[in-house]
Amino acid sequence: MNWGECWSRCEEMEPRMQLGMDGKEFVRKQEAWNNWLSEIAQRFEADSVEDIAWFERALAAEGKKWFACSVLSKLPQIPDALFAPLIQAAVREHCPSNTRAFVAPAVHAFGSARVIEALRPYAEHGTREDKDGAQSALYWAPLLSPAEEQPAQGRSLLKSILSRIRALFG
């Protein structure tokens, strides 16, 4: 099964609360969904040009981006080639709460300082939509960072970056 076929199957697998569905059934569907995502994430080949290209396109596509970030969040390590597409997906997301779905795997794989630094140009020089998206993404980046990631020097850099970004939004 290729990634396009996995994405097509996603529609039938993804759990959705439905009228009359009890909580136990929803939890069972959620567990099946997570197991399926973990299973198909094992098919991802970090050195595959085709896999990288498919996920780059998927992160830019409205219908496929949720599937793509769900699979990427299951990977032990996200390839560096997908860092920029994850950041762009976060910036393009219109719903501030949903931005977390793209920021979380990026922070987990690359660290909050790198994510914040990548968002800064959008916040400083982007279109109005870019600035709004960057601001939403910037909300999540430091909150999702594990404490052990930030030794004193990292915390100092992070505080400096955050203060410059906050100054932009006053």
The radius of gyration computed from the alpha-carbon positions, rounded to a whole number of angstroms, is 17 Å
Give the overall shape, derived from the CA principal axes: globular
Continuous helix count = 9
Number of strands: 0
Beta fraction: under 5%
* Average pLDDT taken over every residue: 86
> What is the helix content?
over 70%
Number of domains: 1
- Main β-sheet description: none
Description:
The chain has 170 residues and is mainly α. It has one domain. It is built from 9 helices and no strands. The protein is globular, with a radius of gyration of 17 Å.
Topology readout:
Elements: H1 3-13, H2 23-41, H3 49-60, H4 65-72, H5 83-92, H6 100-110, H7 112-125, H8 128-143, H9 152-169
Helix pairs in contact: 3-4, 3-5, 5-6, 5-8, 6-7, 6-8, 7-8, 7-9
Using brief descriptors, characterize the structure shown.
170 residues; mainly alpha; 9 helices
Concise summary:
The protein is an all-alpha fold and 170 residues long. It is 70% helix and 0% strand.
